[in-house]
Design goal:
Layout: E1 6-9, E2 12-15, E3 20-23, E4 25-29, E5 32-37, E6 48-50, E7 55-58, E8 60-65, H1 78-81, E9 87-93, H2 101-107, E10 115-121, H3 145-154, E11 159-165, H4 168-171, H5 175-189, E12 193-196, H6 204-208, E13 216-218, H7 237-244, E14 248-250, H8 260-268, H9 292-301, H10 306-311, H11 315-321, E15 337-350, E16 356-370, E17 373-377
Parallel strand pairs: 1-6, 2-7, 8-9, 9-10, 10-11, 11-12, 12-13, 13-14
Antiparallel strand pairs: 1-4, 2-3, 4-5, 7-15, 15-16, 16-17
Helix pairs in contact: 3-5
Length: 381
């Protein structure tokens, strides 16, 4: 009988959680990492996966998606998009609320290949009827703090936080009252808040003033009037102050929320996002987002080192979720692993404003291991 279920051989392992980058083999047994060593014999495994010329990383974590539940009348299924992208854990960011989470729990979570988590919307109907009239005019009327707190308490394993749309463009007069309600529920239940920012009012500093350590600002590199840059082109003092007290800043690329120009300026000033995520849903899955490796490639093209890009989709994202066993390659940890290659060429990348950037390389997922099972292996055309 084989000692291991799977050995991944020959790859360059990148594990930012322990500041490791180097050649190593990884063995998997019973759904967990059983060994990490310079060389492990293929003969000791039931199956060997060759990773020479590739990077072997913890399974990628996409902190902002909309998967498995209707958004703007369309559904994107996690099992279709996560394994081919190396994503082994994803967060549905506000698609469900207290009224609708039970459907998601019963219909989506049991059949999902990746680990799925949720930040439930402070508005109890979630995003099932986003925009007019249900959001812009009525968002706050769907807030039931007691029911939201109960739903979180009953689903601790799956619900990791609360989502708030803190922009008047989407929620009319309700952004700050909704955020105040989320603050009360978050404080009562011990979970973080994630806020969507894009267009003022309210001003970004009014939103940031309500956030505490562990809370998340998503769409942090958006080009709109709630952006992190001031009129002088510098990162706002309120943004830096928020980070100093422990607020996290997440990319949440989306169809309209990521700007190369804003990202360049922020990176030039040393203000890197804490996490890189896609905001994946039907309106951006065929561009400009595509998937998480493409979003990661954009930050490589902007000059962020590979180890720092990987950090923001592995251990940083796991820490934001409070799932600190994930996002790491360690003996005994869940065997969630991505095998990535960096392909050379001339690749056109597009942001949410249709600005383009040509990159000499792009990240591609070659294989995905989920809980010890090889759930995806790229087939060359």
């Amino acid at each position: 009988m084989a000692r291991y279920d799977l050995v991944i051989r020959g790859g360059e392992v990148i594990d930012p959680a322990r500041s490791f980058r180097g050649r190593a083999d990884i063995a998997v047994r019973d759904g967990r990492i059983a060994a990490i060593a310079p060389e492990l014999p293929a003969a000791e495994a039931a199956r060997a996966l060759e990773a020479t010329g590739c990077f072997v990383t913890p399974g990628l974590i996409d902190l902002h998606t909309h998967l498995g539940f209707e958004l703007h009348t369309e559904v994107v299924k996690a099992n279709d998009v996560c394994p081919p992208a190396g994503v082994t854990a994803a967060v549905d960011m506000g698609s469900t609320g207290a009224f609708t989470f039970s459907w998601y729990r019963e219909r989506v979570l049991p059949s999902a290949t990746p680990r799925l988590y949720a930040f439930i919307n402070i508005a109890s109907l979630g995003t099932i009827a986003i925009h007019r009239p249900y959001y812009v005019e009525r968002y706050g009327r769907y807030i039931d703090e007691e029911d939201t707190a109960r739903t979180i308490a009953e689903n601790r394993a799956a619900i990791k936080g609360i989502k708030v749309f803190a922009t008047s463009a989407m929620t009319g007069e309700w952004p700050l009252p909704a955020l105040d309600a989320a603050r009360r529920v978050a404080d009562a239940t011990g979970v973080p808040i994630a806020v969507h920012v894009s267009a003022a009012p309210p001003a970004l500093d009014e939103v940031l003033a309500r956030l505490q350590a562990g809370d998340i600002v998503t769409h942090c590199l958006n080009p709109h009037s709630q952006q992190i840059l001031g009129a002088d082109g510098h990162v706002l003092p309120a943004v830096r102050a928020a980070r100093e007290r422990g607020v996290r800043f997440d990319v949440g690329h989306g169809a309209g929320s990521f700007s190369f120009a804003v990202a360049r300026r922020a990176l030039d000033e040393g203000f890197l996002p804490d996490t890189i995520s896609t905001d994946l849903y039907y309106a951006n899955i065929n561009g400009p987002v595509w998937d998480l490796p493409t979003t990661m490639t954009k930050f490589l093209a902007l000059g962020m080192p590979l180890e720092e890009v990987v950090r923001r989709v592995t251990c940083n994202a796991a820490d934001a979720l409070g799932e600190t066993a994930l996002g790491r390659l360690a003996v005994g940890a869940p065997a969630d692993i991505a095998v990535l290659s960096l392909r050379e060429g001339a690749f056109t990348l597009v942001d949410s404003r249709k600005e383009t950037l040509t990159s000499p390389s792009r990240l591609v997922c070659e294989a995905t291991v989920q809980g010890g099972e090889l759930v995806y292996e790229r087939e060359e055309a």
